[in-house]
Design goal:
Elements lengths: L6 H24 L7 H7 L2 H32 E2 L3 H7 L8 H12 L4 H10 L15 H26 L2 H9 L4 H30 L2 H5 L5 H12 L2 H32 L11 E2 L2 H32 L1 H4 L2 H34 L7 H6 L7 H25 L14 H23 L4 H9 L4 H30 L2 H6 L7 H10 L3 H29 L1
Parallel strand pairs: 1-2
Helix pairs in contact: 1-15, 1-17, 3-7, 3-9, 5-7, 5-13, 7-9, 8-9, 9-12, 11-12, 12-17, 13-23, 15-18, 15-20, 18-20, 20-23, 22-23
Amino acid sequence: MILGLSRTWSLAGYLIAAIIILPLLAIIAQAFVPDEDVFGHLFNTVLPTYIANTILLMLGVCIFALLIATPAAWLVAKCQFPGRKMFQWALLLPLAMPAYVVAYVYTDLLDYAGPVQKMLRLWFDWQAPGDYYFPEVRSLGGASVVLALVLFPYIYLLARTAFMEQSSSLQHASRVMGCGPWQSFWRLSLPMARPALAVGASLVAMETAADFATVSYFAVPTLTTAVYDTWLGYGSLSAAAKLSAIMLLVVFSMIGFERFARRKQQLFQKQSGPNESSVSKLTGINAGLATAYCSLLLLFSFLLPFAILLQYSWDYFDESWNAAFWQYSFNSLYIAAIVSVIAVFIGVLLIFIRRISPRASDILPSRLASTGYALPGTVLAIGILVPFTMLDFAVNDLYEYFGQAGPGLVFTGSVFIIIFAFCIRFSAIAIGSVENSYKRISPSLDMAAITMGLKPKALLWRVHMPLLRKGIFAGLLLVFIECMKELPAALLLRPVGFENLATYVFQFVSDEQLEQGALAAIVIVLVGLVPLIYLNRSLEQEN
């Protein structure tokens, strides 16, 4: 905070923040509008089931993700075993895989007509479903397991960092006091990593609450599917807004818990980097078990679904390689490119204002703008439909007032609304990426540039931008891949006849024909791998 900015900069920041929080305000306002008893009907019939399923799903996914991610994070951070360096980055790969694709693959493998149950019936001579018990895949439990397999890297990444940052002297002290490796993990490492685990679990819970495609495929009614069904089934924007408001309560509770856990995290973790001297070398059967555990986790979370997608793509290549595939790929790419540039522009502008303005009020826009990512896709879509539907009606009424034919759905019937929604949802990612890069630029550099007579625009363009290029590039990549994967908002907001790769693949999943959409799913996964590899290399260079 070293330079007095003109009010134009502040107004620009507040204008962007106001646009980003517009859907949130619209949901709150619309939730108080009467809805012709649609919400009352839902409240008296299925709403308790929606809420219970949402809570049970979040708990199930978090528990299972913690159980599989924590041992992997501890092994990679604290033990030396064959394949450790590869597992450090490979266990992040499931983040590139859409959860609904994994759901389809495992349903195809594990349901009654799938190869696993066929093989069991053949081996044990079972003739009918009543002859044996097999867990139902299309269930709340099945959805929990599938989502945990895709989302566990959030916990793995944070827990691995927490374990690596634990002081080696504490480990040595515990061993001197007679603790074995297991006791040292249980009584020392795990409690110290608890804040990081809590942060990871809260992120997983938020992603679970926002998931639409997986629970829809498994026919598990949650608040997300309720918002979608209420809008498309009943056509009641007010009832959908009320359900969205309930979801927001759940999401913001998770955010509050995550912030509380991060505060604790700073108390327990030291500031230095990883300490290789605290890594124990595993030998014999222990080394084999560690490698086997990480291998199986990688196999079931990424390699097996990816291999099946490759097989589907090869078998159905002629049917998939068509004009629709190219058109939908182009739609996804150009929307993702436009949103990435806009989101990064917003991130640079808001963080620049916050960095150099002496006014305390200039901190607020960047914080308000970061709330967009907290809105689940379906909730965000409802929040955007409310004001833009009103705006469309106003434009058409204005045309009719002057005796002209209205232009129709200018905003809600065009691609503009998808780009707008994606910008709001993913600007927070760009803001975070730019903010991290700014932390590495010394304020003394700003002061030296100002002393030499540089104005704010020149300071930003000639001094900051060259130093921010890695953060900007990371932000572009992250926003790009999120746009490629985003499904719920695209499903609700897409104009008639418009598809992108995510909606294209989901249609095939819903029709039980993923084989024909596997090539498009492969594209989504491969595009998602690029930022993961880049970010992992950046983390390794920092370490």
